[in-house]
Each structure stands twice: as C-alpha cells, then as structure tokens.
Amino acid sequence: MSKNLVQFIIEEQRAIAGATGDFTGLLSDIVTACKRIAHDVNKGALIGVLGSAGSENVQGETQKKLDVITNEIFIESNQWGGHLAAMASEEMEDVYPIPARYPKGKYLLVFDPLDGSSNIDVNISVGTIFSILRAPEGVNNPKAEDFLQPGTKQVCAGYALYGPATMLVITTGNGVNGFTLDRDIGEFMLSHPKMTIPEDTREFAINASNERFWEAPVQRYVRECIAGKTGPRGENFNMRWVASMVAEVHRILTRGGIFMYPRDTKDPKKAGKLRLMYEANPMSFIVEQAGGMSSTGRERIMEVQPSDLHQRVPVILGSKNEVERVVGYHLEG
Ligand code: AHG
Ligand code: MN
Ligand code: MN
Question: What are the residue boundaries of the structural domains of the chain, listed by start?
C-alpha cells in the first residue's frame, strides 16, 4: 500500500538527527489547509465562492472571492499549531504575526493561496504555492526583512494543484515527490515518487500576447521555436499556456517543457510578473530538485537577494538544456 504524505514526511524526518517533529507538524497543517481549499474550489458555484470579492490586493490586482477565502483558510489552518513565527502572503501587504493566544515556533511560511485565480470562474486548474523558511536566530516577532532570504535558504517548498485530480508536490531538498488526494479516505497518497524533469523538450509556454514587450534574447528563442523544422533549430515545437503557473510547472515535472514569464517593458516599474518569495522561489526549488533549471535569464532565481516581500522577478524554468539555451542567448547580449 502506498503511504500518505504525513507518513512520508515522518519517515524522511527520522533520518535527520535532531529533528523535533515541528516540521512534520507544520506540514500536516499545510496539508489540512490544502484539503480545505480543494473542497471549496471543487464545490465552486454550489457554495457561492466564484466571482470577484470587490476588493484589490497590495499589488493592485482585483481579488476573487476565492483569493480571500483561501488566504483565510491558510491562516486559520497554520496559525494555531505552534510551529510558525509569522506568515506572509500574496494577499496581505504586511507580515501576518501569530496571534498572542497561540504559541510561536521557528518557521516562516510564505504563500500564494490561490495561483491562477483568473482561471477560477472558467473551471480551469488553479493551485496553491508555499515556501518554508527559518526565522532568523533570536527573532521573536519577525518583520518583512526577516523573510527576505534567498531561495537557497528554503527548508521546504510545495504546491497543491486543484485539477482533475488534486495533488500536492513537495521538496525538502531531497528530491521531489507527488501525492494525489484520495477523497474517499481524505489523504494525500504518494503517487509520483522522485519526479524528474527530462533535460530536453520540444514544448514551450509563454504568454505570446506580450511578445512586443520582451527583450531580444527571449524574442529570438521563441521565434526559433516557432520557425520549427525549417528554422535554425531544425525541429518542430509545441506551445501551451494555461495561465496557472502551478499547472504549467506540473506539466513540466510530468513530461518536460520550458516556462517563461520573462522581463518585459510593459510596465517599467516591474521586473516581471511573478513574485519572487511565493511563486518564483518555491517553484525554482522544486524544479531544481527535479533536475531542471530556473533562472531570471541572467542569474539563478534562488540566488536573488530579495529586497521586498512582494517583489517580482523574470522567470525562465524547466528542462535544463532549453533553459541553458535561453540563458546563453542573454549572455550573448
Ligand atoms: P495569481 O493568480 O496568483 O495572481 O498568479 C497568476 C500568474 C501565474 O500563475 C500565471 O502563470 C500568470 O500569472 C498568468 O499571467 P497572464 O495573465 O499574463 O497569462
Ligand atoms: Mn500566483
Ligand atoms: Mn494568487
């Protein structure tokens, strides 16, 4: 019989000298949050959760009802356990401190409670992305600056994908494992052990409507893919764009591919669209742990020193040889 996620983590933690069970407890609360979100996403219109919330988040994006609901679910499920020092989310401008009525722990949790939320009303896959960091030694009331650690410092990263099946994919720096929610027993069961990304691919994902805003190296790469067999690559490429990063990364983990939300000139104040702390870093950790590569085009995403909780970065990730090629085009100028 395959094992559930919590059993898997307990067994993994046993191998680590000095593990206290704190991390396992935290992950078990995250699992509960994702099950609750899966329930609400799945019921959709039946429980009145579709549509706009009529508010904006810190980034000036219109919030969907489910952006707000899933953020609350994540907070509620994770604040009481005693494992966290603080949380931060796409949907909250400032750090969320653990209320005084609960004990505090040593970890920091950063999350995008609902990724791809523009897809929610049209019943296309959405997800949740999370990243776990350690609170700096001796810090009891973490501030935003305490979260500003490069992706290489992540203790764990994961995403839940609410698709035809609900899945949870995680890494603790020891490979990537995927679990599928068995609704009959309410458990995430290990279904995709040791996920790896093929080094080569003939499939790319990018929002091509932004082409005129891209930099030359990305324009060149995509032009060459589209030119296909008669172009410089000498091979035909396929294209996909789901507009849910979780779904794109999951496809890449399953059959390879390259995903790009590159730097563009659409809004000169923004370096890209995706957020470093709760989208780019956790996905980069997972992709690298699966043998893929993740870059801004100019540097490894996980080595970017964050300067703001909500900062954006260009993202180019997926099958190693294709990401290397795009990075090479950036180096050539
Ligand atoms: P979110 O719903 O959390 O704001 O994130 C959406 C992100 C990402 O998941 C997706 O890849 C991208 O935005 C889609 O962007 P376009 O709207 O440009 O297609
Ligand atoms: Mn997102
Ligand atoms: Mn979101």
Answer: 5-192, 203-331
> For ligand 1, which residues put their CB under 6 angstroms from it?
61, 90, 112, 115-118, 207, 243-245, 261, 273
Tell me the two tokens of residue 179.
């679990």
Q: How far apart are CA 200 and CA 97, in angstroms?
A: 44
Residue 196: CB atoms within 10 Å: 13
CATH topology for the 5-192 domain = Fructose-1,6-Bisphosphatase; Chain A, domain 1 (3.30.540)
What global pTM score does this model have?
0.97
Q: For 233-250, what is the HEC assignment? A: CCCCCEECCCCCHHHHHH
Distance of CA 44 to the CA centre of its chain: 22
Q: How far is the centre of ligand 1, averaged over its atoms, from the C-alpha of 275 (Å)?
A: 10
What's the CA gap between 197 and 201, in Å, rounded?
Answer: 9
Quick one: CATH architecture of 203-331? 3-Layer(aba) Sandwich (3.40)
- Is the separation of the CB atoms in 170 and 157 below 8 Å? yes
- Distance between CA 116 and CA 67 in Å, rounded? 10
In degrees rounded to 5, what are phi and psi of residue 79?
-85, -25
Atom in ligand 1 nearest the alpha carbon of residue 246: 9
Residue nearest to atom 18 of ligand 1 (CA): 207
pLDDT, tens only, 184-234: 999 999 999 999 999 999 999 999 999 999 999 999 999 999 999 999 999
Which residue type, as a one-letter code, is found at position 260?
A: M
223 residue type, one letter: R
DSSP annotation string for 229-298: GGSTT-S--EE---S-HHHHHHHHHHH--EEEE--BSSSTT-S-SEEIIIIIHHHHHHHHHTT-EEE-SS
Quick one: tokens of 177? 């494992």
